[in-house]
Specification:
Elements lengths: L1 E12 L6 H4 L6 E18 L5 E4 L3 E4 L8 H10 L5 E7 L10 H16 L6 H15 L7 H8 L2 E7 L2 E6 L6 H8 E5 L6 H5 L6 H24 L2 H16 L8 H13 L3 E4 L7 E5 L4 H8 L6 E3 L8 E2 L2
Helix pairs in contact: 2-3, 2-4, 3-4, 3-5, 4-5, 8-9
């Protein structure tokens, strides 16, 4: 039996600039500042006695060949790693469901690849895992998504990730002593109570390209600032920057926010948050919220039961085979 554990991620600034349509064409490329968090996707692989294939997730599939598998990520990960039959695949997650803004689909893809390579006796590099996950999601399955999630999941830790026509580079941000604990205390995740399809939002081509790219350059500038702030341990400035990042993000597409999302943002700020932004493509998932001592308790008291609140702990290992 093989078990892989792969972290989800929180993006502070730069989301959207990792899309190929911007990162490849813009001379300066894209940049995202993010952390992997201590919430995980687990993949279990077990060899079967027979040659059948069983895939267990929110549904259960029992099939005779890889081509029959309906779960696209599982099917393509098996094809890429050369597993053709006689295996049982089970996936579970600390935060179930897609569309939460935490990069769960990419974490799953990275975790599937890591486990399947291990089953074949291979130990891929973190770069290889991220590149293969991008290939499956973007090139093979045609998802209109960026490349930040795969690298954040594979590498773990706090990173500045750059995206250019020449490829992707990961620059670890060395956190000062005690900053990891401070991030966990002062940054929280607030669930909106809604999920959405990132592909539908990111694939919406209704916005004017010139205006959208102008906003994306603003968002990249925020990532430039965020990398410095995080590296210097200036969490106050980083938390306040979330507001600018959210305002710029809302202008990239009319589908990023809704009246319900805007109302929740206003309520979170009125309770005492100093900064907040919606994670992922928009229209649902989690808000990343910054505030001082006691904010998490006040949010828990004043928000509804559907708005679950989680601390932001950092995972420094990235995707790994734990059994």
């Amino acid at each position: 039996m093989i078990i892989s554990r792969t972290p989800l991620r929180v993006s502070f600034c730069g989301g959207g600039t990792d899309l190929d349509g911007f990162a490849v064409d813009d001379p300066e490329g894209g940049r995202v500042v993010s952390i992997a968090i201590d919430r995980y996707v687990y993949v279990t692989l077990n060899k079967r006695f027979d040659d059948g294939i069983r895939v267990s997730y929110s549904s259960i599939e029992n099939v005779d060949s890889v081509d029959e598998i309906q779960h696209g990520l599982v099917r393509e990960a098996m094809r890429m790693t050369g597993i053709e039959s006689g295996v049982e695949v089970t996936t579970i997650a600390d935060i179930p469901g897609r569309g939460t803004g935490l990069g769960s689909s990419s974490s799953l893809t990275v975790g599937l690849l890591n486990a399947m390579h291990a089953l074949q006796g291979r130990k891929p590099s973190k770069d290889q895992l991220a590149e293969e996950a991008c290939s499956i999601e973007i090139d093979v399955l045609g998802a209109p998504i960026g490349r930040q999630d795969q690298y954040a999941a594979a590498f773990g830790g706090a990173n500045s990730i750059r995206f250019k026509s020449s490829g992707v580079s990961v620059e670890p941000i060395n956190l000062m002593e005690g900053i990891s604990d401070e991030i966990s205390k002062k940054f929280s995740l607030v669930y909106t109570g809604k999920t959405r399809s990132a592909s539908e939002i990111l694939g919406d081509g209704s916005e004017h390209t010139h205006e959208r790219n102008s906003r994306l350059r603003e968002i990249r500038d925020h990532a430039d600032k965020a990398a410095i702030m995080m590296g210097e341990g200036d969490l106050e400035s980083l938390g306040l920057l979330l507001n600018d990042a959210w305002l710029s993000k809302r202008e990239t597409s009319s589908r990023v926010s809704t009246s319900e999302i805007d109302e929740l943002y206003d309520k979170v700020m009125s309770i005492g948050a100093k900064g907040a932004k919606l994670l992922g493509a928009g229209s649902g998932g989690f808000f990343l919220v910054y505030g001082g001592t006691g904010l998490r308790e006040r949010l828990s008291k004043e928000l509804g039961p559907e708005n679950r609140i989680l601390p932001v702990g950092i995972d420094f290992s990235g995707s790994e085979v734990i059994f």
